[in-house]
Design brief:
CATH superfamily of the largest domain: Dihydrodipicolinate Reductase, domain 2
Number of domains: 2
Number of helices: 13
Shape: globular
Strand content: 15-25%
Number of strands: 15
Strand order of the largest sheet: 14-13-12-11-7-10-9-8-15
CATH architecture of the largest domain: 2-Layer Sandwich
Length: 368
């Protein structure tokens, strides 16, 4: 029998849950927000005071054991993603996991494999992958008309410097914070893992891997913190694993040091043997040109459709109810974690090249 509503629980009631996920579920007639879990009683109380009461737990394991859930949204600190998501998958529920998927490549593979073993869907919270711009670019790449990929450029500049400083009040007028800001979640490496890489490059790199279907092989990286505890500007060079005749190369760059109100830029350029593709998520636009001069264009989308922050929660509900297949599959989170794990490792080694395969083979341990 088909379900009328998806029964969903939320683990983590901080900034992004209270800004995007909870209101999205509340506004969705196909979803029922059954319960919320957060180790901080005051965070649960703040969320309930704004969005209404449901069952609450200070231990997510109690929620998973006591509630009849179809799926959960995991939006805890980055360093807790692996442990919490593993528990949810072992409970046999579908999971929407906020980005970054995890911090270690071996953990990413472990979660993807666990989801497959348990027969549940693991979705990673990358809103741009649900937009027409990404699908348009993906269809072009899959058509084969551009031929083999040779070079990739991925750039993301963004306004997050005050988050990286732990000063979320500087952005209150911009983001509105219906309940709370992120506090120290992105400025303390014990919570976030890293800075710009784990907060922002995770978005742009996931789009890069989605469009290209490549996998990082060797990575070298330099990062600068500019006096903060986490990275602000990152420069990553990588060689991808060979596909047919070629091993493509690429660069991934990012900085979070933009001023208040600056929307920044997120663009992926893919250069192939028969032409090139550009996907500009910041404008919701795309451009393709073949070697013989054939051009195709997409967009731009209107501003309100360029970053669909509420669509990931809706997608979880649609997958649970059988209205959609998983368009946010774990594999793009895995590819992104592989690259970022290698990048942070390379930076710690003074920019020395790091093999992704070496990281994947590391023993899987609890925690990050």
């Amino acid at each position: 029998m088909l379900k009328d509503q998806a029964r969903v629980g939320i683990i983590g009631t901080g900034w992004w849950s209270t800004t995007a996920h909870i209101p999205s579920l509340k506004d969705n007639p196909d979803a029922q927000l059954v319960a919320m879990a957060d180790a901080r009683p005051e965070a649960l109380e703040r969320a309930c005071s704004v969005y209404g009461r449901c069952n609450t737990y200070t231990d997510y394991r109690d929620m998973l054991a006591k509630e009849q859930l179809d799926g959960v949204i995991v939006a805890v600190n980055h360093s807790a993603h692996y442990e919490v998501t593993k528990g949810a998958l072992e409970a046999g529920v579908h999971v929407l996991l906020e980005k970054p998927m995890v911090l270690k490549a071996a953990h990413a593979h472990d979660l993807m494999n666990l989801a497959q073993q348990r027969g549940v869907e693991l979705m990673i919270g990358y809103p741009w992958l649900l937009k027409e711009t990404a699908r348009w670019g993906k269809e072009i790449m899959q058509s084969g008309e551009l031929g083999a990929i040779q070079y990739v450029s991925c750039l993301f500049s963004s306004m997050v410097i005050e988050f990286l400083r732990g000063n979320d009040e500087s952005y209150r007028k911009i983001f509105g914070y219906p309940v709370t800001g992120p506090g120290q979640a992105y400025s303390d490496p014990a919570l976030s893992g890293g800075g710009q890489g784990h907060l922002q490059i995770t978005h742009s790199a996931a789009s890069m891997f989605y469009l290209s279907d490549l996998q990082a092989d060797k990575v070298t990286c330099f990062m600068e913190n500019f006096g903060l505890a986490v990275d602000v500007a990152d420069a990553i060079a990588l060689r991808f694993k060979p596909v047919e005749r070629y091993a493509a190369v690429g660069v991934v760059g990012s900085t979070g040091n933009l001023g208040p109100g600056d929307g920044g830029h997120l663009e992926i350029q893919i250069y192939c043997e028969n032409g090139r593709l550009t996907v500009d998520h910041s404008q919701g636009a795309g451009y393709m040109r073949t070697m013989d001069g054939v051009e195709k264009r997409f967009g731009p989308l209107p501003p309100e459709r360029r970053y669909p922050q509420n669509d990931t929660s809706k997608h979880l509900t649609d997958v649970i109810l059988g209205k959609a297949t998983n368009q946010l599959p774990a594999i793009y989170g895995v590819r992104t974690v592989e690259m970022l794990d290698a990048a942070y490792t390379s930076n710690a080694r003074g920019g020395a090249p790091v093999s992704v395969d070496d990281l994947i083979r590391q023993p899987v341990e609890s925690g990050e």
